[in-house]
Amino acid sequence: MMKFAKCLIVSLLLASVNAVLVAQTLEIQRIHPTNWWIGMKNPNVQLLIYGKNIHKAAVSVKYPGVRVLKTHNVENPNYLFVDLAISKAAKPGTMSLVFSQGSTQTTQKYVLSAKRHKPVPVNSSDFVYLLMPDRFANGDESNDRFDDMLDTKADKNVPFLRHGGDFQGIINHLDYLQELGVTTLWNTPVIENNTKLKKELHGNLQAAYHGYHFSDHYKIDRRFGGNAGYKQLSTALHQRGMKLIQDAVYNHVSEDHWMYLDPPTKDWFNTWSSYTGTTHKEQAITDPNGANIDRKYLTDGWFTPFLPDVNQRSPFFANYLIQHAIWSTEEFGLDGWRIDTYKYNDMPFMNRCNQALMDEYPNLLIFGETWVTNPASLSYYVRNNVKFPFACNQPGTCDFPSFQAINDGLKESFGWDGGINRVYQALAQDFLYHDPSKMVTFLENHDTDRFFSVIGEDFNKYKLGVAWLLTTRGIPHFYYGTEVLMKNFKNPTDAEVRRDFSGGWKTDTENKFVASGRTARENEAFEFVKKLANYRKTTPALHSGKFTQFIPQNGFYVYFRHNAQKTIMVVMNTNAEAATLETARFAERMQGFTTAKNALTEETISSLASFKVPAMTAWVLELK
């Protein structure tokens, strides 16, 4: 009898323990996407459920117009994937997701809203301003640092640490951007980077202040202002008629990302027997004689030892990334996407992601960062006119060939292949691209040496570069501070070209946001950009007209932007001395015009047969 009683007690204890374990399995920690919308072209959404041992839970929903299609188990018992179908009959509201296992149930609320966002097209009429939120302006000092994050440091005197810039700082200076002529804001990534300091190649411990080390896709970094602050920035921009571009990273995440610490499957990330970095050699992709292993090294190799490479061939991870892109567009009212490290991604995945976004938001601009200076190779990664074995569907891309050409060309003397001929030759290969007007042009960005330093701090060359950028074909973007002659080389680190914008912090002794805080030369640069950017904004022929260029001769580069209403003639004299331009060879574009007005100086050119142009000067002539 005693033995039976002991057995009964043990059985009851085990049952109690099992009951506790069952309860633990229904602890839901994350549901991604965190919310969704009715009215999407794709009526289905796949939920990633994360918790403790939830993989055996049954899932049900009682909400008109919504049903569970299927649940998916994976290797890790902490994950469950749930496919939902949302019919056109569904109404906005809060539904209940019921998770059941045995006699235990838990319910999670899930919000469905009506799809409302219609992106404002970003196109060649726009002037895009790229900034790094941490380095632009600190509008809210209370969010500079948080003790419960992995990186608790904030010190603007240390180049490698966070400096405290945020969304409120940007909002505080939207008047400045609009005065300059900016129409569209592009921030480096704003998604949470809750990561430890990383030891970079230069040996310093560096914070992820730049934003490219994601740790949770569905959180905007609270040191910038969090999800609520990002919505405030988006609203403030749209109230002014401005637009917002978000920076995407599909290729990798931080080693501190919660999914890397506890991945759903063994193949969630691209892993190797020992650390294998990418080769960065895109030639392997289009090389008809190339080796498959070299293609694999490019796409599956890791960008750095602390940035795990995402396996975009995983159907669940692919869905996760695509849905996050759609979620972000709707949640934050985005008008465009810039895609980081484009060439390292799996191209079938990228096509699927791009198409899903364009299906839901046909007006959305998508352009990638493909650091390739050969136009033929670059054309592979964008809609093109080449019969490659694989056809990429990306609408636009950063124009690295023209970036390299203008930076090199202004450092060189004019020659057969040198000087300004480099720019002409780069643009002469536009036949490769399906739509060159969607090429995003630039003089510098957050990964390059500063343009003003590259050209030897020569102000005349600076104005030549700016004039070219704001009059050539494509969508121009500026890197913050270019308008006030911010300078430096990436020596010893990238932090040197990511310095704070003076005036964005209360402790700054100079304020470049106002004319009184700028030097005479800085004000001249600002006013030059402002004059041309605002003229461009109101002159459709200049920003959207046909582009016709002529072979450079005798140090002159001449091209035209024209439509049925207006013709703009751009003349660049890259000689070290003033020179006379004879215009007879431009007759096909100048016939019928007798005078011109210089949009930069307001001066009138009374005779177009020939005219003398000062050394190292660009004229933007509105023909009359």
TrEMBL record:
Keyword list (alphabetical) reads: Glycosidase, Hydrolase, Signal
* Glycoprotein among keywords: no
Which molecular function term from Gene Ontology is one that the record holds? hydrolase activity, acting on glycosyl bonds
Q: Which GO terms describe its biological process?
A: carbohydrate metabolic process
What CDD domains does its record include? Answer: AmyAc_bac_CMD_like_3
What SUPFAM superfamilies is this protein classified in? (Trans)glycosidases (SSF51445), E set domains (SSF81296), Glycosyl hydrolase domain (SSF51011)
**What is the protein name stated in its UniProt record?**
Alpha-amylase
Phylogenetic classification of the source organism: Bacteria, Pseudomonadati, Bacteroidota, Cytophagia, Cytophagales
